[in-house]
Amino acid sequence: xxxxxxxxxxxxxxxxxxxxxxxxxxxxxxxxxxxxxxxxxxxxxxxxxxxxxxxxxxxxxxxxxxxxxxxxxxxxxxxxxxxxxxxxxxxxxxxxxxxxxxxxxxxxxxxxxxxxxxxxxxxxxxxxxxxxxxxxxxxxxxxxxxxxxxxxxxxxxxxxxxxxxxxxxxxxxxxxxxxxxxxxxxxxxxxxxxxxxxxxxxxxxxxxxxxxxxxxxxxxxxxxxxxxxxxxxxxxxxxxxxxxxxxxxxxxxxxxxxxxxxxxxxxxxxxxxxxxxxxxxxxxxxxxxxxxxxxxxxxxxxxxxxxxxxxxxxxxxxxxxxxxxxxxxxxxxxxxxxxxxxxxxxxxxxxxxxxxxxxxxxxxxxxxxxxxxxxxxxxxxxxxxxxxxxxxxxxxxxxxxxxxxxxxxxxxxxxxxxxxxxxxxxxxxxxxxxxxxxxxxxxxxxxxxxxxxxxxxxxxxxxxxxxxxxxxxxxxxxxxxxxxxxxxxxxxxxxxxxxxxxxxxxxxxxxxxxxxxxxxxxxxxxxxxxxxxxxxxxxxxxxxxxxxxxxxxxxxxxxxxxx
Length: 563
Prior knowledge:
Structural class: alpha/beta
Low-confidence stretches: none
Radius of gyration: 43 Å
Mean pLDDT: 86
Shape: elongated
Strand content: 15-25%
Number of helices: 18
């Protein structure tokens, strides 16, 4: 749950620490006092959208942190982003917003991106905003609500797998569809390219060998001259001895004294080694000279081949290997076009089987959804009765549609607001107060399927008053038995039902507006509930009435604890 929300320089809040408690927490205050700023700060630290305009005037940056307790180690988003709760199970989310619009996000001190922060934040806290009830009017969202409640992820995943296969086969079939003239032109082009590449007789790695040989041939005269000179110096000719003969004579001269002492023996061996090395070197140079075949014709051929490869590379690929790969692709495409009729028949057969698989998977998904729809109707109906909407009927309407990525179903939520009236789309019937309560019922039902421990309701009481307001307060108190509930409200019934009550209050100091958030004791709660009930004129009668409301709420919470 959310233990502590720390806010610095967000709008008119210069500094605030709000220590939330388990169960039901209420935030009240005058309109414009800054209650929505607290919600904005929560959204920011959860990875929501922010802007530099949120920073308090005169400040360079804003900062928000939130400490959550009892966070499970397997919470989605933690492991994949390298984050984890500390030894006590606490997780601290932090976000700093600079005046340049940049954000620095951390989770337990580990830097993360805003996207990663959002991925983790959505698993910790859910905010039900003032206008979320309007989302019920968007029928495109109804299927997602049903899937969340019905837990149809397995059936939907199996359906999507079959549907993806179907789409892939359709794509292959579309690729085969072209008119005969275009097909012939393409086939002629492919045959020409394949023939040109085949005539080139490309060999992997030949370009490197060709460039090396061409460089050698271009410098052929230099090579021959250098090797001949080296051979003459080492081997000499008919008229004059070379270095090898001279070293041999030195060796012969020293052979007669080699046994006189150790120094002479060492000297002789060195000369002997030098003669052997010089002899081997002379033989290598002679072989190189004799092997080197400098032919102007070969150089011309190498230049011509290089030019041919250059022209082909401009059309077919940056390297010989790329051109060979392109040649294979052309062959495959040509073969596919030449056998297109056979392939089309094969694909059509596969398409039929894939369509049957999608139909089966779609029926299984529809069946799972209808079972979920029946349970959702019962649960929502029960919730609505508890919210003083006993005459309202709620129904999940199914209609078949062409298979799509989300299945074969169109889902709408229908309702009848009064006895005897036909079921109609929610957008045609529900008032603002009814929308708020239906959305609250849906939120309560969906919350049962989720691990999220903290639910935030921002003015869920919009359009609600009187007896209905008391029912909403009781419903939130029931929910608070299993979840932590934070509620921004203007209704005395909701404020009194909370176990913990915070006042968001605006003031002025040193010519600057500021907002503070304080936890109220019983006497302060009486005064605040009296203000909410009667306005600025707080009378003794209003205070007595506020005390009575608080006592009734406390009694109701005690009943819930005993259940």
